[in-house]
Design goal:
With 180 residues, the chain is mainly α. The protein has one domain. 71% of the residues lie in helices and 0% in strands.
Length: 180
């Protein structure tokens, strides 16, 4: 077995990879759920709130957004920690596995965008669980979140799905015995 053979991975590395995969599924699923819930608040193709939506239904959607924000935020922190531990302890070297290098760059490169969006989400969580805020307060935060950074969070989500494709197909992988 060579040092880059996955069978040489330690138990800690395998646990980090499992935590990364599990938390990644929860986090990406939460992001998708939040997009669907948020889409119910708006008129299709606009940033205007749906006037046919009753205030109580709108409030329930904001509550769902707040609850899913807690779950996705916790899962994102778990993803970052487990990814860092896996990269640090992995027997696979980034030099031989270009797909893993690109994935790490995508994940950690979009971290400032995710943290900024997470601060807005956590303000919504605060409003939901610790205040008696009105729907208008939630609307302001929601529009700030949707318009945050000019669509960069959506580009980040697309890059996360690109990471899955990279992990499946593993391009730029240097085979044992290859020159270079």
């Amino acid at each position: 077995m060579t040092p880059t053979d996955p069978r040489t991975a330690t138990v800690g590395t395998r646990i980090a990879l499992f935590a990364f995969a599990l938390c990644g599924v929860i986090w990406l699923g939460g992001l998708n759920a939040r997009m669907v819930i948020g889409g119910d608040l708006l008129e299709p193709g606009t940033l205007r709130f749906d006037p046919l939506l009753s205030p109580s239904a709108e409030r329930e959607l904001f509550r769902l957004l707040s609850v899913t924000a807690l779950i996705t935020s916790a899962a994102y922190v778990c993803v970052l920690i487990s990814a860092a531990l896996f990269l640090w302890r992995s027997p696979w070297k980034l030099r031989q596995h270009g797909w893993m290098m690109i994935s790490a760059i995508l994940l950690f490169g979009f971290m400032p965008i995710e943290i900024y969006a997470m601060t807005i989400d956590l303000r919504m969580v605060y409003l939901e669980f610790f205040t008696t805020a009105s729907n208008e307060d939630f609307r302001v935060l929601f529009l700030e979140r949707v318009g945050a950074l000019g669509g960069a969070p959506f580009v980040a989500v697309l890059s996360y799905y690109t990471m899955i494709a990279l992990a499946v197909f593993q391009p730029l992988r240097r085979r044992p015995g290859a020159e270079g």
